[in-house]
Amino acid sequence: MLCWAAWPAAPAAAAYPGKNGRILYSVSSTASKGILYVRTPGATELRGVHALPGARGATFSPQGRRIAFTARGDIWISEADGADRRRLTTTATPESEPTWSPAGDALAFAAGRAGQRAIFRIPAAGGTAAQLAANPSDDHAPTWSAQGRIAFVRHTHRGDDLYVADATTGALTRLTRSRTDEAAPAWSPDSARLAFTRRRGAATDLYVMGADGHRVRRLTRGQRVAAPAWSPDGRRIAFVMRVRGRDQLFVVRPDGRRLAQLTRSRSVPAEPDWEPTGFDPVVAAAGDIACEPSDPFWNGGRGSAGRCQQLATSNVLLGMDLAGVLVLGDVQYDDATLPKFLAGFDPSWGRLRSLLHPVPGNHDYRVPGAAGYFDYFNGVGRPDGPAGRRDQGWYSFDIGAWHVVALNSECSEPRSNPQTAACAAGSAQETWLRADLAAHPRTCTLAFWHHPLASSGIEAGNAAMDALYQALYDYNVDLLLTGHDHGYERFAPLAPGLVPDPARGIRQFLVGTGGKSLQRPRIATVGSELRGAAYGVVRLTLHPGSYDWTFMPAAGWQLADSGTSPCH
């Protein structure tokens, strides 16, 4: 573990950015089975989330799509439904009390045994942890505000007091100097207030104060409370309070009014956290991804000499709250056998397995019928699954208000792919596409396949996809994502024939920057607005009537592109 280092400044956040979702908590009766529970306030229905035996201290990511928790002495992360679980910390020191950064790209946590703890920060993708501040005795219970400040508990000669550290500079501010012990700080969503507990004799009560430590208000009197958590809209606080010798969940307004009991359980609920919801979905995309271990630039999966950067690009994905990942073909090099998938792609992008929506590329079809590709995504020998039918490779789904269509562009190589050789008008794929788009009318629609319709790189044009592009245009599709050329390129909206059409044209993003290698652009083709070569992914925020895009470069690479556009 390292000593303090300056951290990137946190982005400003709007007050109360989320809507209230469910409350996540652990219970004593199922702790040994590793089951966490979520429930909607005011409802009795419970849903279990499988974590790990002894899981505790679970907390939602900023948009509620992931959780972090403590188990087996380490910090773990999974999707909110328990999928894609992975261990974030691996040291011999016990670690606990994770809290997310406002961007969801890092976590802070307490490390060490009671009486000797310190606060550390680690990227959400994993890596080296950096210590928050030199600790003379014992620091714990960190909570990260939307404005980038970390409040925590420090043991002093007077007892346990609350401090705040600036996440950019590391500057410390002491908030409390009472002769009582404070614990469990929790930021309000707008960062203007802190809830916390204060112990007086046998009682531990709930308090709220301003972010500067002033305007302290006590919300309970003579109770035994713990673990406050704000609702995402900032109007209520959930917490644990003992009633008739048993802990239960309660909620109360920040002014102390409208106290309400949520649970009447024998299972002793503990450590609640409130799910933020209501955000427009975010997806990320790239293609041309994973080297195989025999590649001379493999370097244990980390890559070298600017090649084989699939781990670096997957780390970018792990730093975002994503609703899906669009995999734009040539998923595994050089020929995509299942063993190569398991050795190359799976340890990197496979860490987000439950979010992946793939299309095949030409390297995936270097194995007859793309058998390794379909075995990996659908299951060995299974005829259908997340990657579509083996004899097709196309499918569709919805994300938020958007309809998304995954297509197979390998019609240009019929010898390696006889089942889907035809992409022409009247072919099976084109007929299916028109029927699918007619059955799913949306204000906003996105399509993705592997070979670009046009490119300033190695594939200047791809007439084989003209009929499918015409179908997209006829049904007012907004976006097309492709790969194949190992670079990044954004196009202006184009009609069939590569004719500029600002009103109805489809905007193509070419994102062949997933990790294998990079190729410099050659001569700009019609409609090309921006070209570059850097590893990374394109991030798309899918609003009901528009979309935002940002290219997210991998560590050590630079390429800036962002913007917004309405749907047709």
Q: If you had to describe this structure to a student in words, what would you say it looks like?
A:
The structure is a single chain. The protein is 8% helix and 37% strand. It has 568 residues and is mainly β. A hairpin with a 6-residue loop joins β20 and β21. The longest helix has 12 residues. The radius of gyration is 26 Å and the shape is elongated. The two termini are 51 Å apart. The relative contact order is 0.09. The N terminus is likely disordered.
Give the secondary structure arrangement, pairings included.
Blueprint: E1 19-27, E2 35-39, E3 46-50, E4 56-60, E5 66-71, E6 74-79, E7 86-87, E8 95-100, E9 106-111, E10 118-123, E11 130-131, E12 139-144, E13 149-156, E14 159-166, E15 172-174, E16 181-187, E17 193-200, E18 203-210, E19 217-218, E20 225-230, E21 237-243, E22 246-252, E23 260-261, E24 269-277, E25 282-286, H1 310-318, E26 324-328, H2 338-345, E27 356-359, H3 371-378, E28 395-399, E29 402-406, H4 428-439, E30 445-448, H5 466-474, E31 479-482, E32 488-491, E33 494-495, E34 499-500, E35 507-511, E36 528-532, E37 536-542, E38 546-553, E39 562-566
Parallel strand pairs: 25-26, 26-27, 29-30, 30-31, 31-35
Antiparallel strand pairs: 1-2, 1-24, 2-3, 4-5, 5-6, 6-7, 8-9, 9-10, 10-11, 12-13, 13-14, 14-15, 16-17, 17-18, 18-19, 20-21, 21-22, 22-23, 25-37, 28-29, 32-35, 32-36, 33-34, 37-38, 38-39
